[in-house]
Amino acid sequence: MSVQEYLDKHMLSRKIEDAVNAAVRAKTPDPVLFISNHMRKAVPSVITKVKARQILDSRGIPTVEVDLYTNKGMFRASAPSGDPTGMYEAVELRDGDKGTYLGNSVSRAVKNINGKISEALFGMDPVLQSQIDQAMIDLDKTEKKGELGANAILAVSIAACKAGAAEKEVPLYKHIADLSGKTSLSLPVPAFTVISGGKHAGNNLAVQEIMILPIRASRFEEALQMGSETYHHLKAVITEKYGAHECNVSEDGGFAPNISSLKEALDLVNEAIGRTGYGERIKIAIDAAATDFCIGTKYDLDFKSPNKSGQNFKSGEDMVDMYRELCLEYPIVSIEDPFDKEDWEHIKNFFSLGICQVVGDDLLMSNSKRIERAISESTCNALLLKINQIGTVTEAIEVVKLAKDAQWGVVVSHRRGETEDSFIADLSVGLATGQIKAGAPCRGERLAKYNQLVRIEEELGSEATYAGEDWRQSS
After folding, report:
1. Which residues form the active site (predicted)?
2. If you average pLDDT over every residue of the chain, what do you get?
3. How far is CA 151 from the centre of its chain?
């Protein structure tokens, strides 16, 4: 084939001429760079390779990281990891060999990506998120993604989402908004973990987390400042009352003083808020994670104290009364999983009081069937969204739509095992969830999300909207 025949076959002369003309019209100071970029943009982007590896999450436990390649570049994502999955969640694939990472290695999930998934997605357009996700679901063929592993599928799904945004030359949060059909964006109210208990911490506090929400901040950057200042005032309060040795932090960055009384913990937080001078601009939220201390039909608030366990059992009715009293005494605006995940009766009774947002985590497990039941039975009014419980970006968008159509609040949430991937920050803005829960204003894997939200707010400039007092029903 002659040079002229090659040029004619690929229409190179016309393409180069178009690029040169564009450079002249733009009066670019660097025409070679401009022409190069122009030619690159003219080529439709397709997935050329997906490469995975095993990395460690914030707990030092293996998880999956993916590099997804298109002819426009490489896009990296990693899968967060939580506690062992429940029966309604998508399934993480782990090797189970106790001699390697105590059985937690994910080399099988990595192999599935480097082989089956990479082959299946080769040549696909990264902009077509739903088609990419469906291709992996079809390849897996199981209800809970147990064949390929939800950790494998999710990491690829997130990486593809980033590649799709790059192909469209828009920010990731804007691409997510486009995928969901949303026209408005908002910065979420952060729920900062400040005191940890439950299975997250080595103290005797039964409930899992106490959080603060800077609802009356004027913008996200101020909300982050308010959270950080309260956190450091709380450290001072704990040090004064119990000594510096009680300021150790849990896996998600919350302080874990050796206390067992919920009221004592709330008093510490209240005092810290008082010292900031922000007063009613900051509200309190609780993640009870009550499934962890439910025994039969009773709740043991001393389940972590061997000498006391069994002496402080409360019935479901007792718990309703306790939560009601706490909401009257403290500025509590949200309680997550106040009852066991199968105690539909009492969570429904508590929700009917209408005294705070009632969030379903273990109750719902981000599962559409559980969400539909909770909606029909008026059991709660907020979804805690953990994307690895679902397994793909597309399915996460679908359950958020389901919740918002029911006028629910949505809390985008981190997991105990996190990475430095900040994807959920963009997800919360793109879906305008109004709430995000990413841990304390401490520890790099948590701050990766909060700091990304600062960048997004700066990028949006005058168009940035902070959910603020519209935190439950953001636009």
Report:
1. 252, 386
2. 92
3. 14
Average pLDDT over residues 86-102: 89
Q: Is 125 a catalytic residue?
A: no
Residue type, 331: P
Amino acid at 332: I
pLDDT digits (tens, 9 = 90+) for 356-398: 999 999 999 989 999 999 999 999 999 999 999 999 999 999 9
Q: Which of 145, 283, 386, 404 is catalytic?
A: 386
DSSP 105: -
**Closest residue by Cα to residue 330 from 201, 223, 470, 213:** 213
- Boundaries of CATH 3.20.20.120 in the chain? 180-470
In the chain, which residues fall in CATH 3.30.390.10?
Answer: 47-169
With a CB cutoff of 8 Å and minimum separation 6, the contacts of 408 are 375, 380, 381, 382, 383
Q: Reply yes or no on whether 386 is catalytic.
A: yes
Structure tokens, 252? 């998600």
Q: DSSP readout, 433-445?
A: -EEEEEE-S-SHH
State phi, psi for 284 to the nearest 5 degrees: -120, 145
Is residue 336 marked as binding? yes
- pLDDT of 16 > 90? The answer is no
Asked if the model's pLDDT at residue 233 lies above 90, the reply is yes
Residue 361 annotated in ligand binding: yes
178-212 tens-digit pLDDT: 999 988 899 999 999 999 999 878 888 999 999 99
Domain 180-470: CATH superfamily, name plus number: Enolase-like C-terminal domain (3.20.20.120)
State which amino acid sits at residue 304.
K
Strand ranges (E), 390-441: 409-413, 434-439
Q: What is the mean pLDDT of residues 73-91?
A: 85
57, 95, 140, 252: the catalytic one is 252
Fold of 47-169: Enolase-like; domain 1 (3.30.390)
Q: Is the pLDDT of residue 307 over 80?
A: no
**And the tokens for 265?**
């913990």
